[in-house]
Amino acid sequence: MCCGGAAVTSPTTPTLTDDRGTLTVHDRAVSTIASAAAAAVDGTSSQASSGLAKLAGRTLPRVDVHNRGGLVRANVAVAAYWPQSIDKVAAAARDRVASDIAEMSGQTVEKVDVTVQALVAGDVAAEEDAAPELPGGLVPRATPAAASVGVLASLLLIAGGVVAIREVLIGAGAIGGARWSPPVVDWIDGLQAQSWMVPAGVGAALLGVILVLLAIKPRRRTHRALLLEGVFLRRNDLGDLLETAVGRVEGAVAGRATSSKRSAKITVTALPDADTKTVHRDVTDAVAREVAILTPVPNIKVKVAAAVQP
Prior knowledge:
Blueprint: H1 27-39, E1 44-45, H2 51-56, E2 62-68, E3 71-82, H3 86-105, E4 108-121, H4 147-171, H5 181-189, H6 197-216, E5 223-226, E6 232-234, H7 238-247, E7 252-259, E8 263-270, H8 276-290, E9 294-295, E10 299-306
Helix pairs in contact: 1-3, 7-8
């Protein structure tokens, strides 16, 4: 029917095409997802990794994300409660971070590396309940280099005191015997310049310089520091730590472990039915996780030898 005025037309339904736009997930969003996932893992704690980090506001967990062609790589640093299994905490954090990134961002996770950068004493619910940090003065250190010199000087002073008391008693007639001080004083009073005095003076000066250097020489550290503030490991115990890590690897038998100040080496024997390359990889990973509690982390060398067939 036709009426006056504008014509009335029926609305049209919009047609959807295959091109519906693109979805872009920034690395910062992925980092937020990963950080929240790591913080939600049982055994992790929100802590600053050091005193300077607290001032700078850099707390743990901390995440660095790299996206290359849709493949995500994440480096996650966490703090764990002590005593917790670092292996289990790191593995749980790695699985949770990878799962949450894939589920929430829709991106493919290529690799997640987890580093335990700090240990917190006690399984506490709040950061303020954590054990207080021990002052740096309690770091285990060796006996001062000047200690032996101090002992020798003390013995000489004691001997000098005994001689002085003897001289006084002889002078008072309390005891008998010949006095030692007059001949010594007369000998010193009668000294004249001689050829041996120059080298003797040089030697005395050098001895004085050596004693001063020994007095100001810093004491060397005797223990390796752990990430947990105030907890240390004896240097000789690093070998036991490595052997413990190897003991958890299937198909490997720990051999001799040696260590120095900045590095360590362990020799492992692969069982006859085990692949040496696989054993080397698993041992390297296990050792790396075990020494992650040390600071600084020593350089570890792993040598795997095949078992000799009977």
